[in-house]
Specification:
Length: 175
C-alpha cells in the first residue's frame, strides 16, 4: 500500500478516529512517539543533547567495551528524520567523527572499515555545511578533527586532511 491509499483511508475517518489512531501509534511505536514529542515541543537543543549522548554511547558504552558504528549512524539518521535544522544536524555529524577520533586516540588503531565510516561521515558533514553556509561556523571543529588524526594509520589522516582542504581552501586564503 502506498501513501495515496493511506491518505484515502485516513480521509474516511472522523476526527475522533484519527485521534485514536495517532494515540495508538504514539503508544506502540517509539519513533512515532519521539516524532510527536518533538512536534509538540520542538526543543532542538535538548534533542541534540539526547542524540549526542546516543552517539557517544556508540563509542564509549556505559557497560562493556567496544564500538557499534551502526548505532551511531542510526542515531544521526533518526535525528535527521525528526526534521531538525541543518545546523544541528551538522553539529551531531561532526560529533560522531570527533568521538570516533577520540576513541581511536584512546585505544589505538582500529580497522579500515571503521575509518571508512568516519571518513564518509566527515565528508558528509562538510558537504552539508558547505550547502548550508555553515563552513565558517564549524571551521575550528573541522580543523581540530584533522589535526587530531595526525597519528592515526590506514591513510586516515591523509584522507581527512584532503577533505578538509578541499572544503576550506578558500576560507584559509581569506583568513
Amino acid at each position: 500500500m502506498g501513501i495515496r491509499e493511506v491518505k484515502t483511508n485516513l480521509k474516511n475517518l472522523d476526527k475522533k478516529q484519527l485521534i485514536d489512531l495517532i494515540g495508538e501509534l504514539y503508544k506502540k511505536n517509539k519513533s512515532v512517539k519521539e516524532y510527536f514529542d518533538f512536534y509538540v515541543n520542538p526543543n532542538e537543543k535538548e534533542l541534540l543533547s539526547k542524540y549526542r549522548e546516543k552517539v557517544f554511547q556508540t563509542f564509549f558504552p556505559k557497560r562493556g567495551f567496544g564500538y557499534n558504528l551502526k548505532k551511531g549512524k542510526k542515531a544521526i539518521s533518526d535525528f535527521k528524520k525528526l526534521g531538525v535544522s541543518n545546523d544541528n544536524l551538522a553539529d551531531l555529524t561532526l560529533f560522531y567523527v570527533e568521538t570516533g577520533v577520540e576513541f581511536t586516540n584512546d585505544f589505538g588503531d582500529i580497522n579500515e572499515s571503521f575509518y571508512s565510516s568516519l571518513e564518509n561521515t566527515y565528508k558528509q558533514a562538510l558537504t552539508l555545511m558547505y550547502k548550508n553556509g555553515l563552513l565558517e561556523k564549524y571551521a575550528d571543529r573541522a580543523e581540530k578533527i584533522m589535526s587530531n588524526t595526525s597519528d592515526i594509520g590506514w591513510g586516515f589522516h591523509d584522507y581527512i586532511a584532503q577533505v578538509y582542504f578541499d572544503f576550506y581552501a578558500d576560507y584559509l586564503e581569506d583568513n
